[in-house]
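Dear colleague,

As promised, here are the two records you asked about, laid out in our usual form so they can be pasted straight into your sheet.

NAME FIELD: protein one
SEQUENCE, THEN STRUCTURE:
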Amino acid sequence: APQMLATVASAAAERGFSNIRTQQGAAEKLPFADASFDWVVSRMSAHHWHDVPLALAEVRRVLKPGGRVLFIDIAGSEHPLLDTHLQAVEVLRDGSHIRDYRADEWVSFFAAAGFEVDVRQRWRLDIEFGSWVARMRTPEARVLAIRALWGAAPDEVRDYFDVKDDGSFKLDALMIEAW
């Protein structure tokens, strides 16, 4: 989004980083020449991509031989009940959300694009509810729907996501390196 790119450009200038350039484009059609980058990094964006396999083919295309890839994103759950609630909460918060993928799905996507892949790290991420919905300017009706969804969720869902009275909860995150 243009606002995100402006924030990056401003932060880079404030820090004196003159080698950072922002460029808007779809992950599925990257606006860069073949073999342009030593590293491709994505942090918390891939769950918005419309076609992850196509985007990873583009990552492969723009990566130099011997280049590396590092992705950090929210992880979907192997348990269908947990995954259904996770995806519902995510799309209520942000209508541009597509899917939080499981680690095995990521490994398969990367392998299909010709990468060797390693799920380097997994961790739980504390989500403070108020700031989480404020960042996306989630409409109040959707905030109420998220609260209702968490409130009506089975105990095993509420326990797994460690849902608190204020709506705060925990998500699974992962870091993937590929080459």
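NAME FIELD: protein two
SEQUENCE, THEN STRUCTURE:
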Amino acid sequence: MASSYTSRTGIEKPATGEQSGTWGDTTNTNFDIIDTALNGIVTLSLSGTSSTLTTSEGTVTDGMNRMILCGGSPSGTHTITISPNDAEKIYFITNNSGKSVIFSQGTGSNVTVSNGESRIIHCDGGGLAAAVTDYTATMAGNTTEATALAIALG
């Protein structure tokens, strides 16, 4: 039986007896993936009007980070497509790109984060019909306070 991968973060699960003598490399990569998924922060330098935030199996990628900081100089409203569309994700977003940023995962609902705003979003991983939900929109109290609390709790 070959290795398999976790559905949300792409952590490799070697099959019994597989990778004799190379478990160390796989384990080290898996720890890097876990570290990134728990507390990773990435700054995306946006340009143009679209990009993809990808999670790839068995390697550390930008889509694994918990905190996404949007910067750069997009030429207009920028759409970030979360890939793959069947991986459930929660992201803390801060947008300082100068333009609104739309987060999309499938044909379901999207979330727009205006310039200067922060949001907590949930990508439901529903495949082709995947949707993105703004959790901060339903949190009690001021969204600025809720976002600061969520970031502090990390």
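A couple of things worth noting about protein two: Residues 23-39 form the longest helix (17 residues). The mean pLDDT is 89.

Best,
R.
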